[in-house]
């Protein structure tokens, strides 16, 4: 009886682990992000960026930039993303106009997270050490060398690289998503 219970628990554990892995991967897809959130217009911006189409043919999707690869930070990011779903349901960001009204606030939250993690998600694809600086134009080469010596990370200079830069609000009353 104990043996049968142990086998059953093992099978249930394997099913739970497989299901969890499947759900995590499915919710990491760009298709999921752009169909479940008010991100259709943001998807168009991304499709016009170098993260979508470039000489090397490498494409970075939503999760490549917005979801950490390690399990703990990934789970935290998934919990944090529930806030976006909640604001979609509440109608706070369910239209392009409403989304634009909050874009500055949302972008700054993403940039602050990226700054706090040293551009961790960027560095899963980009590292200064792996760059062929002599193939870059003089300005980029100089800035990347300085960035490396000064401890700067990608987001310090590359805000708005995959999405349009948000317009800074005119008033001091910045809208916050709580």
Fill in the keyword field for this structure:
178 residues; 8 helices; mainly alpha; globular
Q: Helix/strand/pairing class, anyone?
A: mainly alpha
Helix content: 55-70%
Shape: globular
- State the helix count: 8
| Strand content bin | under 5%
Number of strand segments: 0
Low-confidence stretches: none
| Integer average pLDDT | 87
Main pleated-sheet profile: none
CA-CA gap between termini: 51 Å
Q: What is the CA-atom radius of gyration, in angstroms?
A: 20 Å
What is the N-to-C order of secondary-structure elements (H for helix, E for strand)? HHHHHHHH
Structural account:
The structure is a single chain. The protein is an all-alpha fold and 178 residues long. It has helices spanning 2-26, 30-36, 40-47, 62-66, 71-90, 96-116, 138-150, 154-157. The longest helix is centred in the first third of the chain and has 25 residues, at 2-26.
Layout of secondary structure:
Blueprint: H1 2-26, H2 30-36, H3 40-47, H4 62-66, H5 71-90, H6 96-116, H7 138-150, H8 154-157
Entry summary:
With 178 residues, the chain is mostly helical. The chain is built from eight helices and no strands. The termini are far apart.
């Amino acid at each position: 009886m104990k043996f049968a219970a142990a086998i059953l628990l093992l099978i249930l554990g394997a099913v739970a682990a497989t299901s969890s892995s499947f759900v995590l991967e499915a919710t990491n897809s760009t298709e999921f992000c752009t169909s479940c959130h008010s991100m259709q217009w943001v998807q168009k911006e991304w499709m016009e960026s170098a993260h979508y189409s470039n000489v090397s043919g490498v494409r970075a999707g939503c999760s490549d930039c917005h979801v950490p690869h390690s399990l703990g930070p990934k789970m935290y990011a998934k919990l944090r993303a529930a806030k976006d779903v909640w604001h979609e349901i509440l109608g706070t960001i369910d239209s392009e106009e409403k989304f634009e009204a909050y874009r500055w606030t949302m972008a700054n939250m993403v940039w602050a997270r990226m700054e706090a993690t040293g551009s961790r998600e960027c560095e899963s694809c980009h590292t200064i050490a792996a760059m062929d600086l002599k193939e870059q134009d003089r300005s980029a080469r100089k800035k990347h060398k300085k960035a490396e010596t000064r401890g700067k990370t990608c987001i310090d200079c590359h805000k708005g690289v995959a999405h349009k830069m948000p317009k800074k609000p005119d008033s001091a009353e910045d809208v916050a998503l709580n």
